[in-house]
Specification:
Helices cover 45% and strands 19% of the residues. The protein has 15 helices and 13 strands. The strands form four sheets. Strands 2, 4, 5, 6, 9, 10 and 13 form a seven-stranded mixed beta sheet that branches. It is globular. The chain starts with a helix and ends with a helix.
């Protein structure tokens, strides 16, 4: 081969290798998709968000630090495109938030992040057994209600939900539907602080009544059928905005607890999901058992409650579930094909 031809030949090979090498590099930063997320101020949700976000980073997304804001602003922000997703859709209880923020035109529910959350009213077992209390309706009796009076006004002090939470609407609806407004007061404030006060009263041997949700650390401190019992409701009655919910949807172990069994799901911007099949598949796959959420909630309650603590907990959870986590990642990557 003549020198001139050899020079052209080598130049062609070098150019080809450069093209191949360049194509194997990562997509320039300007083309990497940025994902913004948020969760409520209930910190165990941050644990879930970190688990999801670490996977998104492994899938080559640029993931911003999660924000902590309340539920309705989260939905509105996702619908407006100011956030890409959140892990806060409690199905069906957040239906009103979803519908009022743009509904299926702008939002989409994906996967089941934590299944079968149980919620309802609980009282201490000692008082339940002594007075044969099995149904919330029995608190219409002023004498029964007064047993749970903690502020001296003669009404039962029912520890309830933060203002703005969907369970707040259900509790207020129940008090009216079951004619309890004259004998039961819905105590609201910071749910976690109120529950700590509830445990203090329990340890002093005083009657307690509270709204309970599992997964939550409360279920590891006050054990069902040992320390506390669930109360039934006299009949199903829920806000119309929650849709058609039957007694089957609100019953656990043969008891009608009056609240729907919750499936915690991811809610995301519809256009984002359509443009990002890998992220959609990831959202569909990630699942965190209730038992793990209870354990995380307790760690937070016992003082490991800073963001760096919760990030460490998420990393530990991933390590303890590495094989399953890696399988989810591999399946999600295949969604690009």
């Amino acid at each position: 081969m003549k020198p001139k031809h050899l020079q052209i030949f080598l130049g062609t090979i070098l150019t080809s290798l450069l093209i191949i090498f360049t194509s194997c590099q990562q997509v320039p930063n300007s083309q990497i998709v940025t994902i913004r997320s948020a969760n409520s101020t209930w910190m165990p949700e941050l644990f879930q968000t970190y688990i999801v976000n670490i996977g998104l980073e492994n899938l080559s997304y640029n993931v911003k630090k999660p924000k902590q804001i309340e539920y309705l602003p989260i939905y509105i922000s996702i619908a407006n495109g100011d956030l890409e997703y959140s892990i806060v859709y409690y199905d069906p209880q957040h239906k009103e938030f979803f519908d009022n923020s743009g509904g299926e035109e702008k939002l989409e529910k994906v996967g089941v992040l934590t299944p079968n959350g149980i919620q309802g009213y609980q009282i201490d077992k000692k008082t339940a057994d002594k007075y044969n209390i099995t149904n919330i309706e029995q608190l219409k009796d002023p004498k029964i209600a007064k047993l749970f009076d903690s502020d001296g006004d003669g009404k039962a002090n029912l520890v309830g939900c933060n203002p703005g939470w969907s369970c707040e609407l259900v509790i207020n609806h129940h008090l009216k539907a079951y004619e309890l407004e004259n004998t039961v007061e819905h105590n609201q404030g910071e749910y976690e602080i109120l529950l700590r006060d509830t445990i203090s009263r329990y340890k002093l041997g005083k009657p307690i009544i509270y709204y309970g949700y599992n997964p939550h650390w409360i279920s590891t401190q006050l054990i069902r059928n040992r320390d506390v019992v669930w109360l039934e409701v006299p009949f199903n009655s829920l806000p119309e905005s929650m849709g058609n919910i039957t007694e089957k949807d609100t019953s656990v172990d043969g008891k009608n607890l009056g609240f729907p069994i919750l499936q915690q799901r991811i809610v995301a911007n519809k256009k984002f999901l359509e443009a990002n099949p890998i992220a959609r598949k990831w959202f569909e796959l990630v699942q965190i058992p209730i038992e793990d959420m209870n354990a995380e909630s307790l760690r937070i309650k016992e003082g490991e409650d800073q963001e760096e603590d919760i990030l460490r907990h998420a990393e530990e959870w991933i390590k303890n579930n590495q094989k399953k986590y890696d399988t989810w990642l591999e399946i999600a990557r295949q969604a690009a094909n």
